[in-house]
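Encode chain A's predicted structure.
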Amino acid sequence: MSKTCRGLKHINVGWCKQLTDKSIISIANYCPELVYLNVNLCYLLSDKAIEKMAKTCTNLQSLSAEVCSQLTDRSIAKLAQGCPSIQLVNFFQCDKLTDKSLVRLAQSCKNLQHVDVGVCLQMTDRSLLELAQGCQNLTYINLHGCNQITDRAIVELAERCKGLLELNLNGSSQFTDRAIVAIAQNCPSLQKLDISRCNNLTDRAILELVSKCRNIQKLMVRSCYQLTDESLAILAENCTNLEHVDLGWVHFLTDRTIVAFAESCKKLNNINLQMCRHITDVSITRLAECCTELKYVCVAGCKRVSDNALRKLGRVCPSVLH
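Encoded structure for chain A:
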């Protein structure tokens, strides 16, 4: 294909698990105008493929390489050097990468907007501080499971990258309210925030979001055990553009919060209430009455919700999965 279609600019070979370096090197040789490459889950690829791409396809703007676990800092340094215009990098679960990769990208690729290093467990504050200083056009960053990153780096990111639209901190257990307060105060355009399993967070963080990020559309607070109705009900009443909310395992929630979501967030299409044991039929009935766009409701482990309420939900919102 690469030999006969030399003008190709977009190539997606994600999930082609038998693909080897030889194929990507051939693409690089014959498609030097390439701007988009997706090699997600191409497990056999090594640094050789990315180094060749960096040398030949200097206009590359987007590289997605999820779970390409053989990649190391060596090839990412070459990528930063050879493709300074790159805007999107996805290295989700490329677990050999360290701070050196992000530092080189931050120093050379000032147009970066989208960075995914979720489950790259060797990342620390150093890499994020470099990104914050060098790539102030960032709109998306995924730090899922990056447990070595602390409030210090998130505060710096918030203060310098004020155009952030989406941030994933899922499972990053060192964060406290300080980090989320900084995000809220500096990133008013934030649309999607995942702070699931950030167990240090309290109602203070959510209340700050309410006051500053009114346009948020997706909020994931799964397993944030300290959150209560005192913040989440107020969030629902004020952030009325919410479409997707994950409240699973937030044990202190009651019908007060869910009724507030139902009555205020008319665009709501996805809500997870798994193991919210204080939720009753009152919540499910109100969701059925008010949220006509609902597509997904999870009430697993909600022992006080009856079959009658779920049948009513099914009648009113026939497309709902529950």
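The chain has a mean pLDDT of 95.
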